[in-house]
Amino acid sequence: MSRFVQKNKYNNSFSLTRSTRIRVQHLLKKYKEQQMGNIHFEDRSRHLRDLPLLSTDFNSWFQLSDWDRLHRAFTDIQTYWSMLERKRKQLEKEQNVQRMATSLLQSIKHIQLDLRDLMSQVSSQMKVVRSSWVRPTPAAALQNLQRSSRTVWESRVEGYIILRDLDLYLTKLARDFLLLASKTHL
Hints:
Elements: H1 3-34, H2 58-63, H3 66-98, H4 103-129, H5 138-142, H6 152-183
Helix pairs in contact: 1-4, 1-6, 3-4, 3-6
């Protein structure tokens, strides 16, 4: 595959990442208003251990091979997709009980479609970088996502954390695609 075609693929992934981030930001705002009761709700002190790490040492990040960078992106996106799937199903159950607005559920589904498209693009790019790569099964990402029973508030905070971290992660992912695109013409 020519470098020009590969660069265009990375640029397309960058664009999809940016548009997905905008959707996540809108959903986070709506989620904070509807689920947290305060559009200005912020809590940076809490983290979920199942989410990908957001901080990265610059030298380690810069030295990653293209395949390692894409593989990490694929597994991280898959993790966020799985977390959103679990949260969406949980909200669907609550909706049946409380007649909650469906706009949150629709927004989550749209973001999941974007993440699925990103996974597909990254998978395709990985095959170009290393033709022997085999796609992992989604079930592996779901195994560690089972939670014990939580209060309604804890569950809502968990949803907030997922969206907050996904927003930050997509910024990091966009940088990866910019770096990959820039390397195609070196």
